[in-house]
Design brief:
two-stranded antiparallel ribbon; Arp2/3 complex 21 kDa subunit ARPC3; 194 residues; elongated; mainly alpha
C-alpha cells in the first residue's frame, strides 16, 4: 500500500511547480525587454529567491537551473552560442544554480534572527552571485570578444564589462529583488494564515 502524501509535501510540490512555471515564463519573456545593447531586464531572480527562502536552497538551485535552461530557448542565447557554446552552457547554468543555492543558504543561515532581514540579504546575494559568475564566465570563455569590444570602445576590460555587459541590468535586478522579495514573503505568510 502506498503512503499518502502529507499536506506539507503536497504544498511544497505545488509551490515548487508554480514557481518553476513563473521562472520559466519570466526567463523567456524577460529577454524581450532591453536596456541598451545586450542587457535585458530580468525579473526571474524574484521567484528564485522566494522559492529558495520558502522551500530551501535545493529548490532555489532548481529554480535557478530552470531559468538557465529556458534562457537557451531565447533569442539572446543565439548571440552567446555564436561566441562559445560550451562557455555559454556552463556560465548560464552555473550562475543560475549558484544564485538560487546561495540565496537559500543565506536565508537559512539568517532566518532565525530575522526573516525579513534574511530575505533582504538573500535578495542581494542572488543577483551578486548571478552577475559575479557571469563576469567570471565572460573572462574565462569570452575574453576575445570582451577584449576586442573594450579596445573598440576605448575602455579597459573591466570598464567594458561593467558598462556593456552588466550596467543597468544588475542595478535593476538588485532593486527589484530587494523590494519585491520581502513583500512576496509577507504575502505568502498572510496567505498561509488564512
Amino acid at each position: 500500500m502506498q503512503a499518502r502524501r502529507t499536506k506539507p509535501q503536497t504544498e511544497t510540490l505545488v509551490l515548487t511547480a508554480l514557481l518553476t512555471a513563473l521562472v520559466a515564463v519570466l526567463s523567456y519573456f524577460g529577454g524581450f525587454i532591453k536596456i541598451g545593447g545586450l542587457a535585458s531586464i530580468s525579473l526571474t531572480l524574484v521567484p528564485v529567491v522566494l522559492g529558495a527562502a520558502l522551500l530551501g536552497p535545493w529548490v532555489g538551485a532548481w529554480l535557478g537551473g530552470v531559468s538557465g535552461l529556458v534562457f537557451f530557448l531565447t533569442a539572446d542565447a543565439a548571440f552567446w552560442f555564436g561566441l562559445n557554446v560550451f562557455g555559454t552552457v556552463v556560465t548560464v547554468l552555473v550562475k543560475g544554480v549558484a544564485a538560487g543555492l546561495c540565496a537559500g543558504l543565506v536565508y537559512k543561515l539568517l532566518e532565525g534572527k530575522n526573516r525579513y532581514a534574511a530575505m533582504v540579504v538573500s535578495a542581494v546575494v542572488a543577483p551578486v552571485v548571478n552577475t559575479g559568475i557571469f563576469l567570471i564566465g565572460c573572462l574565462i570563455f569570452f575574453m576575445d570578444t570582451v577584449s576586442s569590444g573594450a579596445a573598440g570602445e576605448g575602455y579597459s576590460v573591466f570598464a567594458y564589462l561593467m558598462i556593456a555587459f552588466v550596467g543597468l541590468n544588475f542595478v535593476f535586478e538588485l532593486l527589484v529583488n530587494v523590494i519585491l522579495s520581502p513583500v512576496l514573503l509577507r504575502v505568502t505568510e498572510l496567505w498561509k494564515k488564512r
